[in-house]
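Course assignment 3, question 2. Fill in each field.
Student: A.L.
Task: Predict the tertiary structure for the chain below.
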Amino acid sequence: MNETNIKTVNQLPSKENVKEFFMDNNKQLQLVILCEESEVFTIELVDGFSIHLANQFLRSLELTSDNSLPIYFESYTQYFQLIKACNILFTNLQK
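Answer field:
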């Protein structure tokens, strides 16, 4: 399994390679992105820039027709729910 910790927008995986994604808080709060060929990408949510990267990833999935997915949250619990909802929507659109 090849794991990459994303630090820049250029490292984000393409929508075509993404299988699923979820939040993991076992070690540190992070967004985990599972891709084809056992590739795993993580974004550690430690500051504003890393949250910006996670938001850019969600927007890159084009889950809305105008790609204006509003991403505002008041707590990490709300962000967990956002990620879960986006993953469900993404999975349903792939079928």
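Instructor remarks: The CA atoms of residues 22 and 88 lie 10 Å apart. The two ends are 25 Å apart (CA to CA).
Grade: pending
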